[in-house]
Amino acid sequence: MWSNYRVSAGSFVWRAEWGHAGEGTEISMRIDLEGKVALVTGAGRGIGREIAATLAREGVTTLTLDIDSELVAETTREFAANGWQGAAHLCDVRDGEAVRAVVRQIEADYGQLDVLVNNAGVFAGGSVETLSEAAWDANLDANLKGVFLTCQAVAPIMKRQRAGRIINAASFAAITPSLGSAGYAASKAGVVALTRVLAGELGPWNVTVNCYAPGMIPTQMNHFADAPRARQQQLLDTLTLRRWGQPVEVANLVCFLASDLASYITGALIDVSGGKLTTQIPRQAYTDAAAQGEYDFDDETN
Length: 302
Prior knowledge:
It is a single chain. This protein is α/β, with parallel strands linked by helices. Helix content is 40%, strand content 18%. The strands form 2 sheets. It has a 7-stranded parallel β-sheet with strand order 6-5-4-7-8-9-10, sandwiched between helices. Strands 1-2-3 form a 3-stranded antiparallel β-sheet, with no helix packed on it. The longest helix is centred in the middle third of the chain and has 29 residues, at 133-161.
């Protein structure tokens, strides 16, 4: 049994009440990413921006990619203001030659590339009957082809190092898709399959490949927190932890997967959705708690 659990991106600390470690024994597992070099795609805003910032705070030299020149400039200013090591690059992950050029430059500048986080993505929705071919292609090109191209560019470096971490953004849509998301869901399901295949291919070189499935994390792409209150309540009703997730909660997972603490995890899809649809009707637990005076739906903040 463990109590007084504390966690930050940098360390996990438990205090044992009883068990093998002995009463009152504190065990510390520290995430040490100092000296690592990481590449994060789609890092101009939202979850990607938080992942890049969290890695940089952990002492990682963090290189970022984004397709928006203004966001690249913002990221550059943020890194300079905080004294973080790294650089922001303007790059379209759908362009194989552009991706390969950036990766070559990173290897030339730093001599290593330890972590790749494929976060870049888009959402183009519509029912199967109405979805345009252009919208279908937009989902597959950015969300799946972009992951393929960056993995393909980075894999030879990690094989030469005989070490590396590749971490890909999937989505809860790859587990349970939403209506009107055929293109997006298909692209993210493809990311899961690609992750598993690549994990198998790179295993002999001690390179791990995993993906994560964010759920209800409000971003400028999904606008969850901007929806009408009734719609927000519908979305929250699907969650075991009835609140919006924060980008840093995804970033902390990425830090763990990038570390030596995750050295025996590969080919995995990790759900970071607040327990979305863990049970058929998650709201029921909150309704029961409210009946006992232990929860107040009116106090929910979004």
